[in-house]
Amino acid sequence: xxxxxxxxxxxxxxxxxGDNKIRVMGESLFTRGSEDEDGNTTMFDFEGGPCFxxxxxxxxxxxxxxxxxxxxxxxxxxNLSSVVLEVK
Length: 88
Known about the structure:
Elements lengths: L1 E4 L5 E8 L2 E7 L3 E5 L5 E6 L4 E3 L3 E4 L2 E11 L6 E8 L1
């Protein structure tokens, strides 16, 4: 697990949760996203970053991973956002 700060100094936790999955979680008053015509998430943006896109990269544990799928996780805690990135 790694903790990285966004441009506003808010912490985001990056956790490898499987061979090809990374969870990114943190406080965010709002998020933005986009979907393709089939309803699959293609972009997810936390307030103040980071912004993840299909085909983009994410760095964790000194490795650079390519993002192949994005899953937005529902949260029951107000202002907490979480996304799972499928990577290769």
